[in-house]
Design goal:
Elements: H1 17-33, E1 47-49, E2 57-59, H2 61-65
Antiparallel strand pairs: 1-2
């Protein structure tokens, strides 16, 4: 959206944890690859995961991509 927030679905609650991790890693890598060359500094500042109506939980992006 105009505030720079990305809302994306990475799976369903019934998915295995590894499938969710793989999907989240793919999303984070795609966002990092889409970073404009003119953009300086940290591109992804915060990542949160939540169910549709649930509270969000903060996730360290490097813990998903590095796994």
């Amino acid at each position: 959206d105009k505030g720079g927030i990305v809302h994306a679905t990475i799976g369903r609650a019934s998915f295995p944890v590894e499938a969710l991790r793989t999907n989240a890693a793919a999303l984070i890598e795609a966002l990092n690859k889409a970073k404009p060359a003119t953009s300086k500094g940290l591109y992804l500042r915060r990542v949160a995961v939540s169910s549709t109506m649930g509270a969000g939980m903060r996730v360290e992006p490097s813990s998903v991509v590095g796994a």
